[in-house]
Amino acid sequence: MNNSTIHVKESTKLRLEALKKAGGISYDKLIRALLSLIPEGDDEGRYTDEFKASFLESSLDVVEGRLISLEELKRRLELE
Fold first, then answer.
1. What's the N-to-C CA distance of the chain in angstroms?
2. How many CA atoms lie within 13 A of 32 on its CB side?
3. Are 52 and 78 found together in one domain?
4. Are 15 and 32 in contact (CB under 8 A)?
5. How far apart are CA 50 and CA 68, in angstroms?
6. Quick check: is 42 in a domain?
7. Over 90: is that where the pLDDT of 63 sits?
8. What's the angle, vertex CA 39, arms to CA 63 and CA 3, rounded to 5?
9. Which of 20, 52, 58, 70 has the fewest CB atoms within 10 Å of its CB?
10. For residue 68, what are the domain limits?
11. pLDDT band, residue 65 (cuts 50/70/90)
């Protein structure tokens, strides 16, 4: 297997390291497991890599509080 280097924030490295140690797995296996969480498609077909990247970015926006979900918007507007 060829090795490579990727640049990540120190905080990201620490989180990956903690998951790696807790699971007793390699970084490669950890990253492949995380990538497997990205949906491949739906009833209409397979997603493009561009769509998958957009999906991940949007999910991160929600997690980091830059966006809110439709459910949260409804709750805030007292529609549910």
1. 52
2. 5
3. yes
4. no
5. 22
6. no
7. no
8. 85
9. 70
10. 48-80
11. confident
Residue 54 sits in the same domain as residue 74: yes
Question: Which long-range contacts (C-beta less than 8 Å, at least 24 apart) are formed by 26-32?
Answer: 28/1
Q: Are residues 57 and 29 in the same domain?
A: no
Region 9-29: mean pLDDT is 93
Same domain, 30 and 58: no
Claim to verify: residue 54 and residue 79 sit in the same structural domain: yes
Residue that is written with structure tokens 């991160």 in the block: 60
Q: Is 2 within the bounds of a domain?
A: no
Res 62 pLDDT > 90: no
Q: What is the mean pLDDT of the chain?
A: 92
